[in-house]
Amino acid sequence: MNASTDFRRAERIATVEISEIVRLSERAADMRVAGRDVIALSTGEPDFPTPAPVVEAAHAAALAGKTRYTATAGTAELRDAVAARPGVTRAEVLISTGAKQVLANAMLATLDPGDEVLVPAPYWSSYTEIVTMAGGRAVVITCPMSADFKLSPEALEAAITPKTRWLMLNSPSNPTGVVYTADELRALADVLARHPNVWIIADEIYEHLNYVPVMSFRDAAPELEQRTLIVNGVSKAWSMTGWRIGWGIGPKALIAAMTAVQGQVTSGACSVSQAAGLAALTGDNEHLKPRCAAFRARRDKLVAGLNAIDGIQCPNPDGAFYVFPSITRLIERGGFASDAAFCTWLLDEVGVAIVPGRAFGLEGHARISFAYADGELDEGLARIADAAGRLG
Ligand code: PMP
Asked: Which of 282, 315, 341 finishes a domain?
């Protein structure tokens, strides 16, 4: 082949890969197709259906001809529905193709080469990759299990440099389920108040899936509102991962810059999905309570079951639908090179897919999703216990 036609990646994305979560889930799906009986506890999407009135609203919108490009920043109706909280105006809201695109827009709109973004670990894998793709530098702050996986004000203060542009906060957290209390958010806000060049992304996509009260960063730190971007969406609470609707709430100038980026990349979110998102946001939300109760019951069973396995130590998550236990003793006992090697073995040995901590920036752990039906969770748990027993 002619050398000039060889494929070459941009340096900017040299290290960017398909996420380990996707890779493992696809491997599990392939194994299933090949006839293996696989329990995949690896993905972060609710097993419940999208509420019927939401689906009906999308259907009606499509039949009514709402099938054209919408305004780049989203339909006025949906932006207003998102803005329906004290002190927010339409100009401070951007609708995107999932919360993920909100994050990408924000990074592309603000980062220059070498700009730093603070990412407390364990983190949702895409944070660091999006920062890298936008040409910035993700600065990981390790928050171990002994610190409840939470960023302390001291660790935040120590990580800030003149190049810091953003802090990424995620509460309730993926992968740990950790929820920051109002006092903890205040303590972080006090540090940030001393560093006016640092902006804050508060990813609150799991806001409504909680087992303790959840406070929005905007409510905890109103004085930082002019440099805070709230990220949220319908994917998790309304079981709408495939509809791809998320939003950002932030200062007008930031939202305008993000809208300019989005306009050149996707033109805006899907029109029919925006109609569905509107129905979700303005609906009665009757589905939420029973679903949270179901998630809580699964969580209780999973945490108890995992802690009963010798070699696993599992904290109790306060929100979202993940547990992030320490598996270091199992890794040692089995002589595995890493948590990833353990997870690969687990999938081959007993057909259970879970995601290694490495994918979230913290080795020695694994993320197990409980967004699965009880039968699958029970079977998954039994197989993990069985596998652990085989390690002697
Ligand atoms: N933030 C976090 C913390 C997530 O876990 C996810 C989904 N896995 C997203 C953002 C992206 O959500 P969306 O489907 O709306 O793009």
From this structure: 282
Specify the number of domains making up the chain: 2
Q: Which of 315, 311, 284, 322 is nearest to 385 (CA)?
A: 311
**Closest to 357 in 3D by CA, of 21, 18, 117, 16:** 21
Q: Specify the CATH number for the domain of residue 354.
A: 3.90.1150.10
Question: 248 near 255, Cβ under 8 Å?
Answer: yes
Cβ contact 366:348 at 8 Å = no
Identify which of 25, 100, 207 to mutate to test ligand 1's pocket (most ligand atoms within 8 A of the CB): 100
Nearest CA to ligand 1 atom 8: 44
Helix (H) or strand (E) holding 293: helix 288-307
Distance CA(332)–CA(329), nearest Å, equals 5
Its pTM stands at 0.96
User: For tokens 């190049």, what's the residue?
Assistant: 163
Residue span of the structural domain in which 276 resides: 52-282
User: What does each of the 392 residues of the chain score in pLDDT, given as a tens digit?
Assistant: 555 689 999 998 988 988 888 888 888 999 999 999 999 999 888 999 999 999 999 999 999 999 999 999 999 999 999 999 888 999 999 999 999 999 999 999 999 999 999 999 999 999 999 999 999 999 999 999 999 999 999 999 999 999 999 999 999 999 999 999 999 999 999 999 999 999 999 999 999 999 999 999 999 999 999 999 999 999 999 999 999 999 999 999 999 999 999 999 999 999 999 999 999 999 999 999 999 999 999 999 999 999 999 999 999 999 999 999 999 999 999 999 999 999 999 999 999 999 999 999 999 999 999 999 999 999 999 999 999 999 97
Confirm or reject: Cβ of 233 under 6 Å from ligand 1: yes
ipTM above 0.95, yes or no: yes
Q: Which positions ≥6 away from 253 have C-beta within 8 Å?
A: none
Residues 147 and 251 both lie in one domain: yes
Q: Which atom of ligand 1 is nearest to the CA of 102?
A: 16
